Amino acid sequence: MKIKEVVELLNAKVVSGHDQLDAEVEFAFASDLMSDVLTIETDNLLLLTGLANLQTIRTAEMSDINKIIFVRKKKATSEMIRLAAENDMILIECDYSMFKSSGILFNSGVKPVY
């Protein structure tokens, strides 16, 4: 599934990575625990989280994750957006809960990590 389809399904807003909307995503992982994110070794992964801070961007960078959706109306700060842009990351803001967002993506064919 393309990122632009994800954005449309979740009625979301892209705040970084506007030039990457044709990027494909196959898997998703939802967590607010960055220690759990560090254990994932899956390529082409979309991270859903409600943890909107620099730690999330740094953890994603360490885990080679370049697609992040902030759920529950969380907003990326300008510093987060700057760091994401430096690392070619896509940041998306979504008003839906993590549960609803995950369900919509799962029902649309995005696969879970496990």
Can you give a write-up of this model?
There is one protein chain. This protein has 114 residues and is of the alpha/beta class. The chain contains five helices and six strands; from the N terminus they run H-E-E-H-E-H-E-H-E-H-E. It has a six-stranded mixed β-sheet, with helices on both faces. Helix 2 links the parallel strand 2 and strand 3. The chain is globular and about 35 Å long. The two termini are 18 Å apart.
Topology:
Blueprint: H1 3-9, E1 13-16, E2 27-30, H2 34-37, E3 45-49, H3 54-62, E4 67-70, H4 78-86, E5 90-93, H5 98-107, E6 111-112
Parallel strand pairs: 2-3, 2-6, 3-4, 4-5
Antiparallel strand pairs: 1-5
Short note summarizing the structure:
Helix content is 34%, strand content 20%. It is of the alpha/beta class.
Task: Describe this protein with a few key phrases.
single chain, 34% helix, globular, 114 residues, alpha/beta, 6 strands, 5 helices
Order of helices and strands: HEEHEHEHEHE
The beta-strand count equals 6
* Rounded Rg: 12 Å
Order of strands, main sheet, comes to: 1-5-4-3-2-6
